[in-house]
Amino acid sequence: MRGFLVKIGILTSIFLFFILGFLTYGSFKTDRLIRERIQPETKILFMGDSHVMQAIQDAVIPQSLNISTTGESYIFTYYKLKRILDLGLDIEEVYLGYSYHNLSSYYDALIDGEKSIHAGSKRFYFLSPAGMLEFLYLNYGKTGVLLSNSLKQIYEVDDYVEIRKYVGCFLNEFSMVSVIDSSVNKRIQSQYYTTFGLRAKSNNNLKYLKKIAELCKEREIDLVLFNTPLHQSYINRVPKYYKDLYAIQLKELDIPVIDLSQMELNAADYIPDGDHVSVKGAYLTTIEFEKKREEIIKGN
Amino acid sequence: MLFNSIDFAIFLPLVFLLYWFVFQKNLKLQNALIVVASYLFYGWWDWRFLSLILFSTLVDYGVGIWLSKTETKRKRQALLWTSILVNLGFLGFFKYYNFFLDNFQEIFRLFGMEFRASSLEIVLPVGISFYTFQTLSYTIDVYKRKLEPTKDFIGFAAYVSFFPQLVAGPIERATNLLPQFYKSRVFNYGQAVDGMRQILWGLFKKVVIADNCAHYSDMIFNNHMDYSGSTLFLGAIFFAFQIYGDFSGYSDIAIGTSRLFGFDLKRNFAYPYFSRDIAEFWRRWHISLSTWFRDYLYIPLGGSRGSKFMQLRNTFIIFLVSGFWHGANWTFIAWGFVHALFFVPLLLMNRNRKNLEIVAMDHLFPKVRDLISIGITFVLVVLAWIFFRAENITHAMEYFAGFARNPLSMPEVRPVLIFTFLAFFLFIEWLGRGEQFAIANLTLSWPRVFRWSFYLIIALVCFIFSGQEQEFIYFQF
After folding, report:
1. Which of B186, B202, B235 corresponds to the end of one domain?
2. Do the chains contact at A152 and B192, CB–CB below 8 Å?
3. Is B292 a member of any domain?
4. Per-residue model confidence (pLDDT) at position A121
5. What is the number of structural domains in chain B?
6. pLDDT in tens, B333-363
7. In the predicted structure, residue A51 carries a pLDDT above the cut 70
8. Residue B98 and residue B95: Cα distance in Å, rounded?
9. Terminus of chain B with fewer CB atoms < 10 Å: N or C?
10. Do A1 and B189 touch (CB under 8 A)?
């Protein structure tokens, strides 16, 4: 019996050693990719999900970089930012996407729900060891698939385009489009409602929003929240509960906000879902954003 | 609890340590631990269904005791029928109620009448077909006086609920498994190491072969109208490997796990895709079910005795019932029917027991004739799987009709990595085709460093190239 247990123990240890090796490889590679993506002269970061990814053309704003990715929840934004700062990059300002949908449990599907394997495995190596454990705990039961998928994902990132997508970038391929009411409705339904009624708030996203704020304060970085333009037909359908929660959170966090949600844009400046801007909408948003940003700087 | 889950990776070592270190001196306590662990394992899905197993256990235990005290034939028959009705009643209700209801309604509609009854939202208890057949075998064997009824309730409950094979077999006969619960078990190093090897190979079959093939077979079957005939055929091949990897992988893990606890379960698969005819395929595929049907249905019906007509009738009955056992859908019945059709020519020509020995035994390569026979048999089996996989008969027919679309073109789906895995898998299975499982003796003569490296590589491949974690297909049966 002892011999059996010892041999199983040795084989399991070697196996775990390899897994640890894979995790270390992924982690180091992520550091390298961050360094390749974010140049030392970068001072301003745009972070968040597809709202920011499609809205801010960083090429227009000097020393800035948009590193947002689709479906990025705050847990990953927090660890990504922490990782960037720990690498010694000299970031001075962070503009973080903050909109009504970020507060909804719609995001939980990407954190510990049915989409977490897809959303989590491509960002897994941004997490610190403690973050990895927390994420695996949240996704208990999918651990093996998450780890193996994350390894495959990081292994495949090697060219310029892949690195941009992995760390984050401005990406908008929507032109000649317009808002479609049925798409807006579908979007609202998926973001704020379940078959049983109004969705609950996302505790995980709220927790990590606070942590991002604390991290920026601790590292003396100016954090500004940023709500991208939303089509009127979308805003009108956002439940009051989420509009109130949005305001309450802002008050609690006491962080400046650039709210462009009511910015006047044409229907053709949005994509059909009404909460993402098109290529033209992105240009107009960036110009307007820069004006507001300068006002904040002057105000300081 | 799935075998390929973290839950089971924690559960198994805990039960193993308790079994061998805490309860090793007391057989009754060891059996009690198996019952508790098995109920926990099963209750992990849905604790409410534990009552079904418990009830089934109590009924068959009681019937066994009464049978031992009764000599009157009529009373014995009544007791046997009580057990059969209770067990098949559960099975019939949970698995077939809606099927029969829908079909009755359809038949009444055909005659212009209306039969009103609402179908029920019934959740099928995991593995009900497996443990039902297992407990039935006990009662029938006691009735036939092939087995002494047990008075040890805990031992009997452990036999019914033994967690490694509870939800997807192998369907164990009481004559084989039950006596093992009465013998004191001593840890056997060779048996445990063998068990670990079989678990490893079973995991490879499940997470690398089955789950990866599942991705492509699902994609092709669900969008069959969009693909060429060659891709549809490839989709059916992917399904053939999915179901084989899935089910035989489960059986390997079940048998391997049992060995860790000192039990020997019956073999359930014996390299069926190397069969040279359909009869041989059925001697090698889901052996525990086909022998169950042979012993408790085919032989009582007369088996291969009597006229050719009787033999044909019995063959069709056993294949149709076997198909229906898999699920309440006409597709499974069609699958059984197609296999019966494939089997009939062999029966008529008295060639159904021709290929009894292992193919190309003591040779590395098969003869050309054997190779052609294996190829033809495999194609027949693959075609029959289309009925098994299809959502309904129309889906199956559309799938077959799709074969006519560019049948000789290059398939649109060509996953090189999966082809590589399949080639490696078939190569290892071919090398080990004379053994209980493919890697049973493969590495034994290798130096330890190579042997361990082989195991580690298999484990790492399982980790890195696992498909999406999926339930075992046979759980639904």
Report:
1. B186
2. no
3. no
4. 87
5. 2
6. 999 999 999 999 998 888 888 888 888 888 8
7. yes
8. 8
9. N
10. yes
